[in-house]
């Protein structure tokens, strides 16, 4: 049987990284053990895949079709924590990774680390301030709504025209008051 337990704590919980990067998953153990197993749960194939077992002497046994050059287990702090390092990541490496120890014919699983490997990270648009330059900078967005006509784009002139119209409408009452005040003053001066 498989059981998840807080006796094996994994960090981080989630990793989103790019193809060809490398990553590391840490597993801390609060339990006596003879070594650590690493498994991957594949959502696509709906099964656990054995990756590697590393005993307390550091000897590793690899699963079928698991590359020893890409997957390696490293011990830290005298058998209380281990890390799984994966290099040259592929999208097929995506899945939930579990460290595990064997106890009375059961496997106790760690808390799990979700790994997603993508070709390009979904980064937010840059919000850094652009340096002031003397030449006008033409920004072309990938938005379908924006036509590639630059400064004449409806995305630019429609809000601009609406803003100018609102400004002019706001000035009408002020201009009218100013006109009436000037007329009263003119009448007062000419009556005397």
UniProtKB/TrEMBL annotation:
Gene assigned in the entry: Cd8b
SUPFAM superfamilies linked to this entry: Immunoglobulin (SSF48726)
Source domain of life: Eukaryota
GO terms under biological process: adaptive immune response; regulation of immune response
Keywords for this protein: Adaptive immunity, Disulfide bond, Glycoprotein, Immunity, Immunoglobulin domain, Membrane, Signal, Transmembrane, Transmembrane helix
Name assigned to this protein: CD8B protein
Gene Ontology CC: one annotated term: membrane
Positions of transmembrane segments: 155-175
Entry membrane topology: Single-pass type I membrane protein
Localization per record: Membrane
């Amino acid at each position: 049987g498989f059981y998840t337990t807080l006796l094996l704590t994994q960090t981080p919980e989630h990793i989103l990284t790019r193809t060809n990067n490398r990553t590391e998953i840490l597993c801390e153990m609060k339990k006596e053990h003879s070594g650590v197993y690493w498994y991957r749960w594949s959502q696509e194939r709906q099964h656990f895949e054995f990756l590697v077992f590393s005993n307390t002497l550091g000897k590793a046994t690899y699963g079928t079709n698991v590359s020893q050059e890409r997957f390696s287990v490293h011990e830290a702090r005298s058998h209380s924590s281990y890390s799984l390092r994966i290099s040259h990541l592929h999208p097929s490496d995506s899945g939930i990774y579990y460290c595990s120890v064997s106890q009375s014919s059961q496997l106790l699983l760690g808390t799990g680390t979700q790994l997603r490997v993508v070709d390009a990270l979904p980064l937010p648009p840059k919000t850094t301030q652009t340096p002031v330059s003397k030449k006008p900078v033409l920004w072309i967005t990938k938005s379908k709504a924006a036509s590639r006509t630059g400064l004449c784009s409806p995305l630019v002139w429609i809000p601009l025209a609406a803003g100018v119209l609102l400004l002019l409408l706001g000035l009408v009452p002020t201009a009218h008051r100013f006109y009436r005040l000037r007329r009263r003053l003119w009448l007062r001066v000419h009556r005397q």
